[in-house]
Amino acid sequence: MVDHTEAAVRAEASAWLEANWDPNRSLVEWRDMLADSGWGMPNWPTEWYGKDLPVGLVPVVEEEFKRIGALPIPKSGIRMLAAATILAHGTDMHREKFLRRIITGEDVWCQLFSEPGSGSDLAGATTRAVMVGNKWVVNGQKVWTTSAHKAHWGLLLARTDMDLPKHKGLSYFIIDMHQEGVEAVPLKQMNNHASFNQVFLTDAEVLPDFQVAELGDGWSVATTTLMHERRAADSLRAWGQVPDLEGRIYDEEREEVKTTLAPYSWYPQRAGRVDLIMQRAQETGAINDPVIRQEIAKLMVLHKSAEWTARRARAAQMQGKPQGPEGSLGKLASSNVARAAARVHTMLSGADAMLSGSDGERDGTIAEILVSFPAASIAGGTDEIQRNIISERVLRMPKETRFDADKPFKDVPRNTVG
Amino acid sequence: MVDHTEAAVRAEASAWLEANWDPNRSLVEWRDMLADSGWGMPNWPTEWYGKDLPVGLVPVVEEEFKRIGALPIPKSGIRMLAAATILAHGTDMHREKFLRRIITGEDVWCQLFSEPGSGSDLAGATTRAVMVGNKWVVNGQKVWTTSAHKAHWGLLLARTDMDLPKHKGLSYFIIDMHQEGVEAVPLKQMNNHASFNQVFLTDAEVLPDFQVAELGDGWSVATTTLMHERRAADSLRAWGQVPDLEGRIYDEEREEVKTTLAPYSWYPQRAGRVDLIMQRAQETGAINDPVIRQEIAKLMVLHKSAEWTARRARAAQMQGKPQGPEGSLGKLASSNVARAAARVHTMLSGADAMLSGSDGERDGTIAEILVSFPAASIAGGTDEIQRNIISERVLRMPKETRFDADKPFKDVPRNTVG
Amino acid sequence: MKFSFTDEQDEFRTVLRRFLEDRSPSTEVRRLMATAEGWERDRWSEINAELELTAVAIPEAYGGHGFGASEQCIVLEEMGRALLCAPYFSSTVLAAGAILNAGTEEQKQALLPKIASGETVATLAFTEGNGRWDNAGVEMVATKSGSGFTLAGSKNLVLDGHTADLIVVLARAPGSSGDQGLSLFTVTGDAAGLERTGLTTVDETRKLARLDFTNVAAELLGEEGEAAGPMATTLTRAAICLANEMVGGADRLREDALEYVQMRMQFGRSIASFQVTKHKAADMLADVELAKSAAYYAAAALDEGDDDIVSVASLAKAAASEAYMQTAIHAVQMHGGIGFTWDNDTHLWFKRAKSSEVFLGDANHHREVMMLNWAE
Amino acid sequence: MKFSFTDEQDEFRTVLRRFLEDRSPSTEVRRLMATAEGWERDRWSEINAELELTAVAIPEAYGGHGFGASEQCIVLEEMGRALLCAPYFSSTVLAAGAILNAGTEEQKQALLPKIASGETVATLAFTEGNGRWDNAGVEMVATKSGSGFTLAGSKNLVLDGHTADLIVVLARAPGSSGDQGLSLFTVTGDAAGLERTGLTTVDETRKLARLDFTNVAAELLGEEGEAAGPMATTLTRAAICLANEMVGGADRLREDALEYVQMRMQFGRSIASFQVTKHKAADMLADVELAKSAAYYAAAALDEGDDDIVSVASLAKAAASEAYMQTAIHAVQMHGGIGFTWDNDTHLWFKRAKSSEVFLGDANHHREVMMLNWAE
Q: What is the average per-residue pLDDT within A134-146?
């Protein structure tokens, strides 16, 4: 039995790390050791690579990793969504087959939820999975899929019954991405990046064993995956920082980070790069223009207020208080900040806002802000969806009337084309 | 038979006016002559004080009034809504009894449509009219009633059947305001004016003859009244200009104008008084502040664009083109202008925006703007209603789902208190 | 930076909120705002006796409880929420602040305990006819006369100026300008040569006065010619206090409007069920909560001696100015015609929002101060 | 003020719109924007041959049709709507405008007929590295050399500068500043010592170039040292033309977004049935129609010789800058994720909106010009 006091956990983690950490191991070797010891994912069950620690004690272990300089398991990326989903709803076969290689990072995962025809309405998925002989045969089209072209496995939400209401006719599968019926095509954005793929599923196959939870439980399993999505996005940003040290393991992790974060390289520009505003205003001398100074000030008031609101929410959370309304406003506030920042960057650029690439300011970074910020109010839940959530869940206002929840899905009006 | 060419109409009107106009007559005497001759309301039917002129020729007659300096019948006020409604839907008894005294201005009218419980939803009226013996007995409460305390007659929308759907159970009446069951109480606004009344109807009586159109046709009759409301509001503003001449008739009309327009004295402040902005900016020196100058400029861009949009709509109308979208935007644009103007006035005032009355700027006019502009986005159709209308009628977007149209009114959820 | 209220602070707020809901319902606000004074000494003493609000932020050495800006800002947020008609801001924030920052030890001992107990109601007279909120705008002249000074000129927009017992006055040496030559003085409300005129205000719950000084004998507060620094410090704290008062009012308006649309039916459905109403309510929440964060942060930053406090204070005031007024406009709109009537309470807070928007400087002013003082 | 289009003008617009819908579908826009030139001479000649668009606003005396600004603005509105890839603005608005306003009678006779026929594609080079749009920003020096002049320096952000046959250049006498000493010159696109570099632009449908002049021989256009007035007149008209082009683009974006939400289903209903979508669509209509009114008014005011034309032109450009960008942002949002993809056409107009927002001066600049020139 593990002793679950903070001191005991700290001592044990510290002892193990000091005995085993060696920056000259390979990344996979080290992660394998973490999996075997349970220190990589200490809040996971003991039988599945963990130590059954309460979540509240995980930061203690993380502190020891940091103190000793050992690389932890990155808590980010789709593969961790897969792990959380498999731990909660998968079979032992799934856990056996997938969890270790999720920890070692040897398998890349992707998420096949969104479709061209459904947008914000994930539960409106129309990709069909039909049992033919002894296999599920899948046909349809998914979109906004990060890393689909590199993925070994996909988390698939597909419709298995058109006669049931929308939320009841969905099931959840793990699909092998390395098969003939799966084609990933890069989806180019207006900012010239292609961070996502469209995935065409044409008679793709899934063995019955790879179904997660019961038939028709797809929506509730998907909800588990989505719950972890925001958290994973946060730690993705944190993960970007590999220590600037020499050693095989650092080189390998830097390489992994680089590959994993490549699709997200424009995200800072999407957020409006408020960090550049004061610098640029001083460089260009625009700070001396009282009109632009007011516009910068308005942006700063918004930006700082949003930042402090997030800190307020975290502080309350750390005190163990129930979540106040301030915790639900971040996404909406950040899309307002991004829009305002793009406006101010345009004022700072003046005529040069017409140029991009190497002719553009800051080697094209400013131009990239100007064609990336619209994503801030769409991706990860549009502003409209955020306001629906805030009004319904935080303010307890009436829900939108549903026109699609109770009737057979086949009778629900939907988009004919993607 | 009247010759309906422009030249003939102009000649005939001119001849009659030159023969009869005399500024030393009393107002009522002159209007009586206009009623008898048909020149007061020349597009009304010949049998009802008019000359059956096509509407397109009315401006010709108006030009002759102007040229000769004769006072026309004011086309404004609730009494003209009453006339339009009675001409369209009333009985000959109604026309006989009411139309002449509407022309002479001897009867003041008011409109009893809005209720505390229904707001934008006029058809949700709950004031009941029940036949008791041989009379209608009315109970309920009306609100936003201009001139109710001075009115002789009221245009009443009341519910005569709770079992029919909302729009079918309403009937339309002319109610005698000088009776015991009718009590008008001034309704004070946040800007200290009391332009409206609440009207309490307690066993008030209406003779069956004073019902307009069939039982249950109230909503369609009310629609006629409302159609004329905007037009009447426009000509109300125009009417304010009585020539600055001596003569009994001018004195009497000035008196009438003064009384009639009294409730509207704060309307210019409600509109934000853009006319004062440049003057004040120059006086206070704020025009030299580049930040305030930008804010003034933004307001001016909005104001001029709105003004030119209205002119564009009128020009197209005069060319006989079908109405374009620009014709539906005036109300919404003017509430944006009013809000922006109040903002700029505040900047121009600085600390003095805290003061009102004789201590306030421009003898309190600025303070009155600051507490009147919110009415611009509410009265005469809220901004929300305007956007509904624009999106549904101009852009042909789907109508809001109705939850109240088809069931018996008694089963429609509604406000219990006013 | 500490960024969350302790359990004690939360408890204090809860008690205070209930207390003010009980003692300052809108009927009471309406009664007091209709008086020339705007508050009643007995009524205010009674309220103050129970929670000792005037003592909260005055140091223990001068008869107060010695709490920080965060606690004082809780008081102000709740007062702003209840629209309490009382001379709290004038006496405790402005006058006591100036005395604390500028007075000699002896003067603090003499003046502050009575302000802390509520026995003395004081105010600070600094703005003049030009409506400026900064030191450089002061034109009133203090002339040496024997061992003392005499004041001549006018002060405008003095909060509770016609009812205060003690008036702290900012004036300058003849011929001086800018931050130079400024001194603070005290005069009693009934001083000879002082004429006090209550002004007609948009916001009837915030009473202002014009004070005309005809050679009024005044006592120097602190060092002669050294008032610029203490005044600036006083006004920075005042801006933070006002921002907190304002977010309290804004949140109240927001909640009342939400409650109204939740209860009100139109077209056979709750107004709150219309998507545009829901989205407006969400935006209102965001406006108010973001402004709250800035106000809370500023109070905490003051308590922690943050170097950027001047910028942070102005940021909080600018945020509160925009958020309160925007919330007030939305709140009227959500009520519809009813929200425009005198009998509905919305206008009481609407007018407070308008008055607060410009009191101690409008958003443009504070954004400019923020940018010019930003250390980054 | 004339304020409505005649039946002939309406008919012209209808024909032009259909024609451009046919000749400049978004597939064609995408094909041309991917080329370094941004337009094709054969393609453009073919389009122009049919409707003689380059001739519309050039006087009959110089081979044009002699129509007014209102007609030219119809052309521009429809081109902005179709995002036509052609050197129309550069050649007909900027270069022909400068030649008309500054050139001698002989020069107009020599240069304008070929621009009117479309045979010569010209442009105007005035902005430099500092990105200023006003006369005072010009630093390039023209030196007398024998009977002619030589130009040395760089011009930046020259519309179609790398593809034009003829370039009108604004430069100044050595040692002069402000409006003084400015002259216009013409050089051919292939002049010796002229290096032309196409720039990478946010809006790929609007090609810009940097022109580096190393002692390029140039011909004086009009009077030496007298270019300030003609340039200002040219840019006032250009601002009006651009405003009309912009409202055309904005209206197209608005209509496309509306069509998309009308057709698109979500949660079992049309996206257009959501109240917030409806209200956003209503606001978009108001934004675009108000900006249209300003653009139309400005064109009519120019034709009528309005005294306030400088202010009115800037008002129209400022209104168009805000309305086009706002409409573009809303249009992406109404499409959702699809609107952010390359394959969806929205971004083509979005980028044109961004580029037009600052081209010839941003909204702040034009609001300032408007206020400083307002006669009222």
A: 95
Domain ranges of chain B: 79-231, 266-381
CA C207 – CA C210 distance, rounded (Å): 11
Q: Are C343 and B188 in contact, with CB atoms under 8 Å apart? A: yes
Among candidate residues D126, D123, D145, the one with its CA nearest the CA of residue D189: D123
Tokens encoding D200 = 């990478």
Q: What is the CATH architecture of D122-225?
A: Beta Barrel (2.40)
Tell me the C-alpha distance between D195 and D172, whole Å: 20
What the block records as the tokens of C88 is: 């709290």
Single-letter amino acid, residue B380: G
Q: Contact D265/A116 with Cβ under 8 angstroms?
A: no
How far is the C-alpha of B147 from the C-alpha of D341, rounded, in Å? 59
Query: How far is residue C279's CA from residue C283's CA, in Å, rounded to a whole number?
Result: 6
Residue among C351, C350, C356, C355 nearest C333 (CA): C350
What is the Cβ-side half-sphere exposure of residue C310, based on CA atoms within 13 angstroms? 14
pLDDT in tens, D331-352: 999 999 999 999 999 999 999 9
- Say yes or no to pLDDT of A236 above 70: no
Q: What mean pLDDT comes out for the span B283-289?
A: 95
Q: Which value, to the nearest 10 degrees, does the dihedral of the CA atoms of residues B273, B276, B277, B281 take?
A: -160
Number of helical (H) and strand (E) elements in chain B, helices listed first: 14, 8
- CB-CB neighbours of D201 under 10 Å: 23
Domain spans in chain D, listed from the N-terminal domain onward? 7-117, 122-225, 229-375
CA angle C74, C76, C79 (to 5 degrees): 110
Q: How far apart are CA D334 and CA D94, in angstroms?
A: 35
Is there a contact between B299 and B337 (Cβ–Cβ < 8 Å)? yes
Q: What is the rounded CA–CA span in Å between residue D143 and residue D146? A: 10
Q: Determine the Cα–Cα distance for residues A300 and A277; give it in Å rounded to an integer.
A: 9
CA–CA separation, A17 and A249 (whole Å): 15
**Domain C7-117 class in CATH:** mainly alpha
A79-231 folds as: Butyryl-CoA Dehydrogenase, subunit A; domain 2 (2.40.110)
Question: Is residue A418 very low, low, confident or very high in pLDDT (cuts 50, 70, 90)?
Answer: very low
Task: Report D:251-290 residues touching C (Cβ under 8 A).
Answer: 274-276, 279
Give CA angle at B157 (B155, B161), nearest 5°: 150
Q: CATH code for B266-381? A: 1.20.140
Q: Which residues does chain D have within 8 Å of residue B294's beta carbon, measured at their own beta carbons? A: 364, 367-368
**Contact criterion met (CB < 8 Å) for D294 and B308:** yes
Confidence (pLDDT) at B3 = 65
ipTM for this prediction: 0.95
Residues 6+ apart with CB under 8 A from D213: D140, D151, D152, D153, D154, D155, D169, D187, D193, D194
Residue B301 Cα, gap to closest chain D Cα (Å): 6
Interface partners of chain D (CB pairs < 8 Å, 3 or more) are A, B, C
Beta-carbon separation of A392 and C278 below 8 A: yes
Q: Measured between alpha carbons, how far is D300 from D294 in angstroms, rounded to an integer?
A: 10
Place of tokens 């002259």: D183
Strands D166-172 and D122-125: parallel
Structure tokens belonging to residue B188: 């004070």
The superfamily in CATH containing domain D229-375 is Butyryl-CoA Dehydrogenase, subunit A, domain 3 (1.20.140.10)
Q: Are A86 and A94 in contact (CB under 8 A)?
A: yes
